[in-house]
């Protein structure tokens, strides 16, 4: 939302997903308009490499883990492979080495689809690898998504120079 409030309400999250859905529709439209020019083995390789490296290893480790905890490397792999920056480098390298082609559109289709259709963004280490509600987030959203900022008590100086609402500190999950 902004540099001081690193969280989303259900409404702002849906609006963000909607923006990625628009990107998905644009990329898919261009892809469909040029189906006869797509090299399918390239499209399949570029679409699949993101999840083969970034999702499947972590998903398997998560399913095999008795308590759902997995090493951070799986989160790093997921976030790296599902990064628009990383995949821009992949597409850029492909264009430099091989040349531009319509199959490259599967990369934004994959990433925009993950974000727009499934709501999957980068994964912090503090959430389960496979989506499930985090108690602290659910608790904070109970207040955050329903109580406007102006309804809170006046801010008072907090630790580390931060300002926090009276009686509502980090232990309530409302201040980073």
TrEMBL record:
Domain of life where this protein originates: Bacteria
Keyword Transmembrane: yes
Region entry Disordered, spans: 154-176
KW Transmembrane helix (keyword) present: yes
Bilayer-crossing regions: 18-35, 41-61, 73-96
Keywords for this protein: Membrane, Transmembrane, Transmembrane helix
Protein name as it appears in the record: Membrane protein
